[in-house]
Amino acid sequence: MASFQHEFDFLASLRRLIPSHPRLALGIGDDAALVRFPDPSGCLVTVDMLMEGVDFTIPPATPRQVGWKSLAVNLSDIAAMAGRPVACVASIALPRHGGFDLGRELMQGIGECADRFDVALAGGDTNTWDYPLVISITVLGEPTSRGAVQRSGARPGDWIMATGSFGGSIAGKHLDFTPRVAEALALHQSADLHAMIDVSDGLAADLWHILEESRVGAVIDERAIPISAAAAGATDNRTPLEHALSDGEDFELLFTVCPDDGRKLLERTPMTTPITRIGEITAGSDCYLQSANGELNLLPPLGWKHAFTP
Amino acid sequence: MASFQHEFDFLASLRRLIPSHPRLALGIGDDAALVRFPDPSGCLVTVDMLMEGVDFTIPPATPRQVGWKSLAVNLSDIAAMAGRPVACVASIALPRHGGFDLGRELMQGIGECADRFDVALAGGDTNTWDYPLVISITVLGEPTSRGAVQRSGARPGDWIMATGSFGGSIAGKHLDFTPRVAEALALHQSADLHAMIDVSDGLAADLWHILEESRVGAVIDERAIPISAAAAGATDNRTPLEHALSDGEDFELLFTVCPDDGRKLLERTPMTTPITRIGEITAGSDCYLQSANGELNLLPPLGWKHAFTP
To answer: pTM of the entire structure?
Structure first.
């Protein structure tokens, strides 16, 4: 067609780009895909929606980075259950103006992430409209034979541990982070993970999710929190610690284990990504931040929330 | 909080609304849900995104109707595979202004549809922004022991059959249609369905999907096409037949069977929804519409497409 291009052309171009995958009994091109789940232990499912102007801006982000991120945030959720990602479907609202090229680059980014983590692209829904880009991805995964790790299993006395470092993700990491899929599987293999979450809302906010679901409290040692270089170098009026506690989009794992398992993990970390003990679960229902001089201050669930106006 | 309400309040209110479901080993409230798939035959997955101003307008549609529709369009896709829907996840971009109430009503509509079809609400992602409402739902389903019915199985000589009637959906049916889940299962039980699709893009466009995937042609008898009351009463400059062929969003089933099975289905229709024979699959690659006087005219894939501008 001369003057504009249609959804079906776009979909046809995608079908040529997207490889077949052994987990797809039936892939893109029918009313639904059929994903093989040979193990009847069940199917993990998670969804995340990213919106232009809220979760990213193009530029500085490239459409490929947005594509990568839109799948990676979901892989991070599967990692937080210590699951293996298997397949995904994507729905996209593309701005009508220039949406064809944008859609192709987005799909390249999604495809790169899918390739890297061996995730089958099982289907999607492509739409156009006159507003900013929206992309929603659903990922299916499977728990390992050790089961899925929930937020609700933290016990008093548990060590609170984390992968990587925190804060300042907006400087770049939020677009090209590596979801901790391999790390979660390695940790799950090496230790009895009591509770786990991926840090998307912010370290304090996501810690609070574990505490609320597990009905426990915590003491966090502020000197132990691994602060990213981006947070350490921040030049605004917030301290590096404040950035690390509340910035969000770190996509690191926050988990709890018994002290014996915690010591083993520190001595023989089953991966190259560093892990740190940042505090301890308590029997209470409060969360304290312990400062260098031993002072305890209440730590509220700082971090990002979507707000409504009446 | 006094002046505005937050995502977590909204989610907390949803968790109280949403019942547990036997297919959910783990439901809303963790990083991912765990859906039970006891049969290792696999997991059907489909996704559809609806956008305000493109797929619906509020008003005249109510948020409950939009919620119903957003799940029902996906159930229609599972029906088109002759599958049983099992669970769903929803991601929503709510306009910041008034989004809390809108979100609740949407979720009521989704919940009503989920209840009606015994679908587990497994999770979601709620967001706010300053643009119109976007809702994306992913449904997981399972094939029956007779397998999933694809678009690609039509054979020359097959009868082309359809449930219900076509055209004029915009007058109201597009918002409160009943996805043909039960009908698809009953047909699959009673006959060897060679190919099936649900009519969302339009009768002609979706017939073309079957023809292209099956690499066959067809002759459609224009007198046999069941025309809805809404299409028959349309007062614009298009004929009722044109409405029936191209309006779309009928969410009826279009399927092909061998003539023997076709005759059996007409004699003993395994449900109350009417079915009609509308034509026959041919060995060619063209699709003809046969008029009352026997004249054959090419039938192009009329119907709705999302268009891009350069």
So the answer is: 0.91
Is A305 contained in some domain? no
A292 touches chain B (CB under 8 A): no
Pair of tokens at residue B139: 């449904």
CA dist., res. A6 & res. B294, Å (int): 34
Q: Amino acid identity of B306?
A: H
Q: Does A32 touch chain B if contact means CB atoms closer than 8 Å? A: yes
Within a domain: residue B308? Answer: no
| Cross-chain Cβ contact A128/B307 below 8 Å | yes
B247 has a chain A CB within 8 A of its CB: no
Shortest Cα distance from B272 to chain A (angstroms)?
Answer: 24
CATH number of the domain where residue B239 is located: 3.90.650.10
Three-state SS letters, A238-273: CCHHHHHHHCCCCCCEEEEECHHHHHHHHHCCCCCC
Out of A7, A91, A128, the one facing B47 most closely (by C-beta) is A91
Contact between chains at B128 and A97 (C-beta distance less than 8 A): no
Tell me: pLDDT of A84 over 90.
yes
Residue B104's identity, in one-letter code, is R
Which residues constitute the domain of residue A203? 151-298
The answer to whether the beta carbons of residues A45 and B87 sit under 8 Å apart is yes
Residues A253 and A161 in one domain: yes
Backbone angles phi, psi at B221, to 5 degrees: -90, 110
Q: Which tokens sit at A166? A: 């925190």
Alpha carbon of B10: minimum distance to chain A alpha carbons (Å): 10
pLDDT score, position B254: 98
Across the interface, of A6, A38, A123, the residue whose CB is closest to B46 is A123
| Burial classification of residue B308, based on how many CB atoms lie within 10 Å of its CB (0-12 exposed, 13-18 middle, 19 or more buried) | buried
**Interface contact A307, partner B, CB < 8 A:** yes
* Count of structural domains within chain A: 2
Identify the helix (H) or strand (E) that includes residue A76. helix A63-80
**pLDDT tens column, A1-43:** 333 456 556 666 666 666 677 788 877 778 888 887 877 778 9
What is chain B's mean pLDDT, rounded? 90
Confidence of residue B8 (pLDDT cuts 50, 70, 90): low
Say which CATH number the domain at B25 has: 3.30.1330.10
B221 within domain boundaries = yes
Question: Is B151 within a domain?
Answer: no
Token pair, residue B41, equals 């035959």
Quick check: B81 and B141 in contact, CB under 8 A?
yes
Size of interface A-B (CB pairs under 8 A): 263
User: DSSP readout, B168-183?
Assistant: -GGGTHHHH----HHH
**Domain boundary residue, one of B143, B178, B201:** B143
Domain boundary among B111, B143, B175: B143
